[in-house]
């Protein structure tokens, strides 16, 4: 890089600019997935949108690609890249909730924990993820699956507008009224189109919920999965519920002699009338006796952060995912074979329901195309010791290979691994060509290519 240009960048950015010559560089380049070890050319932590515009222009003028880091949860490590300019939004985490309009303005580096904390005093929330340390930006741009999606739709369905800095460093307010093509593309198209520095969300009345995790013996998993596929099809949309394989963590509500054992779990979230919560969950309770449970009335933010401790920064990560229209007997058989082999307490498999409100959006209304899918499955390999990389990655790959023939060709981009780029067209189905055309308009040189990449069409 030109020394004078770098000096000018430091002078023109209100936030911080870090390169390999700076003492804080190694800390600044570290990301959530410890399997990722990359050396970007420049890391900019902007103080405001103007800094982002300056950084993007600098990258374009100096022939650098741009990697965007929001909450930093990208499993493939797309928030960094060798020789790139990283826009690290972690210093832009402000959230402002307007209770009169029931909306929230959220900066691009905020996490779902930030948004939940701001909304809870007003009794307002929107569909977020399952882990509260996940970034609002990355989750929303990829679609946004979470506890509330059956009743409220995906995160991107609740997006009203977004401030976006595109590849030429220009500023856009994308909405249905302005830059409508850009607004369409960022609702599911990932970070392909620019840096989103602010989101405006529709919020809904959700404060306390009734729910929590239930744990069952492994030999009841088949009964529960067969029950679940029928039950969730027409369950009240206030109910979020997903099955999981999970090694029992050392929590006080789980019998001590079961700690460390693989169990089958159901995670529930009733966001309707709290007095009706127990009745709503009763059909699940009737299927099989529980080994343990932690179910009751709790703040929605408490459920959204309940699993945070299992996935701290610094783990090794490798994930695979598919959309599923029908959970067939053959698919269930594959889960029964591979799920119990879960290697460590951090790893898991979830089958998220995405029916209800999420299905009432037309497949071409947003970039998120799989509106006919009923479930989104993720096999999330997460473990602390790099020495286990080969064995634990093999568990994910073998599990995925067994379930893929019973799933749709495409999957949820937020759950994709770095080696899933060949699936990009399948992930977007008939929306891909329009996405490629929009990419050509806003990023013709593919400056933003560190993602599940859509090539300019």
UniProtKB/TrEMBL annotation:
Entry keyword annotation includes Flavoprotein: yes
Sorted UniProt keywords: FAD, Flavoprotein, Oxidoreductase
Pfam families: BBE (PF08031), FAD_binding_4 (PF01565)
Tree of life domain: Bacteria
FAD-binding PCMH-type domain residues: 36-206
Alphabetized InterPro entries for the sequence: BBE, FAD-bd_PCMH, FAD-bd_PCMH-like_sf, FAD-bd_PCMH_sub1, FAD-bd_PCMH_sub2, FAD-linked_Oxidoreductase, Oxid_FAD_bind_N
Record flagged with keyword Membrane: no
Known cofactor(s): FAD
Family the UniProt entry places it in: Belongs to the oxygen-dependent FAD-linked oxidoreductase family.
Protein name: FAD-binding oxidoreductase
Source organism: Nocardioides cavernae
Lineage, top ranks: Bacteria, Bacillati, Actinomycetota, Actinomycetes, Propionibacteriales
């Amino acid at each position: 890089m030109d020394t004078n240009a770098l000096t000018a960048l430091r002078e023109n950015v209100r936030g911080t600019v870090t390169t390999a010559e700076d003492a804080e560089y190694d800390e600044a380049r570290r990301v959530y997935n410890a399997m990722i070890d990359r050396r970007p050319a420049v890391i900019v932590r902007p103080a405001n949108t103007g800094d982002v515009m300056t950084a993007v222009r600098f990258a374009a003028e100096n022939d650098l690609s741009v990697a965007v880091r929001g909450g930093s949860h990208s499993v493939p490590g797309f928030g960094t890249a060798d020789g790139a300019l990283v826009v690290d939004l972690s210093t832009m985490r402000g959230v402002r909730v307007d209770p009169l309009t029931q909306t929230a303005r959220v900066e691009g580096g905020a996490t779902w924990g930030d948004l939940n904390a701001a909304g809870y005093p007003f009794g307002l929330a929107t569909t977020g993820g399952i882990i509260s340390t996940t970034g609002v930006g990355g989750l929303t741009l990829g679609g946004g699956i979470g506890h509330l999606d059956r009743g409220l739709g995906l995160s991107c369905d609740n997006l009203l507008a977004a401030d976006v800095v595109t590849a030429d460093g220009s500023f856009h307010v994308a909405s249905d009224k302005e830059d409508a093509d850009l607004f369409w593309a960022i609702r599911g198209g990932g970070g392909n189109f620019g840096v989103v520095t602010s989101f405006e969300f529709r919020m809904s009345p959700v404060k306390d919920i009734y729910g929590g995790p239930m744990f069952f013996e492994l030999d009841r998993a088949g009964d529960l999965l067969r029950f679940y596929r029928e039950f969730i099809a027409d369950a009240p949309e206030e109910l979020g519920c997903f099955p999981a394989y999970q090694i029992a963590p050392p929590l006080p509500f789980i019998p001590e002699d079961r700690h460390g054992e693989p169990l089958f779990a159901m995670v529930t979230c009733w966001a309707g009338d709290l007095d009706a919560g127990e009745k709503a969950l009763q059909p699940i309770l009737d299927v099989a006796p529980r080994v343990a449970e932690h179910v009751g009335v709790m703040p929605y933010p408490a459920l959204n952060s309940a699993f945070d401790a299992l996935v701290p920064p610094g783990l090794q990560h490798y994930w695979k995912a598919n959309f599923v229209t029908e959970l067939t007997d053959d698919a269930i058989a594959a889960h029964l074979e591979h799920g119990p082999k879960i290697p460590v307490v951090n790893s898991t498999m979830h089958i998220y329901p995405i029916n209800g409100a999420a299905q009432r959006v037309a497949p071409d209304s947003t970039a998120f195309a799989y509106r006919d899918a009923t479930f989104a499955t993720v096999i999330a390999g997460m473990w602390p010791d790099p020495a286990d990389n080969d064995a634990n990655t093999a568990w994910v790959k073998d599990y995925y290979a067994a379930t893929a023939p019973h799933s749709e060709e495409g999957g949820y981009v937020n759950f994709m691994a770095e080696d899933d780029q060949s699936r990009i067209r399948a992930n977007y189905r008939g929306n891909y060509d329009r996405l490629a055309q929009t990419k050509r308009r806003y990023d013709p040189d593919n400056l933003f290519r560190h993602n599940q990449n859509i090539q300019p069409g």
